[in-house]
Write a structure and sequence with these properties.
This protein is mainly alpha-helical and 163 residues long. It is 77% helix and 4% strand.
Length: 163
């Protein structure tokens, strides 16, 4: 029971961090905003066991949309961030491992593709296509921040101490 409670607490902390970073470090865009909160979705996936990681990513991202005035994206974000977090493994000893490098590419594709589909449903094909470059930039920024934070966490052996 103590391990489940610990994972629930860490998932809640990650959800809060994802929400706050997504809301505060953002650049407004035509249909929404771009942010680096994805890096923390990736970190949740690399640190937490599977069900807790997807819940943290989905809830954190969705709450950021709700609190930022983009409620129309709550459901797509919930699905997209859950799928993105599911790409990662927490079983590796380090955050930066081969599986998680591949996961960044998969999660980025899920994010760009998922928001394209959501944008097409909301604004039509042209509206969705207009945001693809920004979504690619967001994916690249999230990957870069994830790599930098992952390197620092691995060097300090924080994952081994906490998770």
């Amino acid at each position: 029971m103590a391990k489940n409670l610990k994972n629930i607490i860490y998932a809640s902390i990650f959800a809060a961090i994802i929400c706050v970073v997504t809301m505060t470090a953002k650049i407004p865009a035509a249909g929404g905003y771009y942010h680096t909160g994805d890096a923390f979705v990736y970190l949740a996936g690399a640190c937490l066991p599977f069900p807790y990681a997807i819940i943290a990513g989905a809830i954190g991202g969705s709450l950021a949309d709700l609190f930022s005035g983009y409620a129309v994206y709550i459901v797509p974000t919930f699905i997209i961030k859950a799928c993105a977090a599911a790409c990662f493994t927490s079983r590796a000893a380090h955050i930066l491992c081969a599986r998680n490098f591949i996961a960044v590419l998969a999660a980025s594709a899920i994010t760009v593709g998922g928001y394209f589909v959501a944008g097409a449903a909301l604004y039509g094909f042209a509206g969705a296509a207009a945001n693809v470059y920004g979504d690619l930039g967001q994916a690249a920024a999230g990957a870069a921040v994830f790599a930098a934070l992952g390197a620092a966490i691995d060097k300090a052996k924080i994952k081994q101490r906490i998770f």
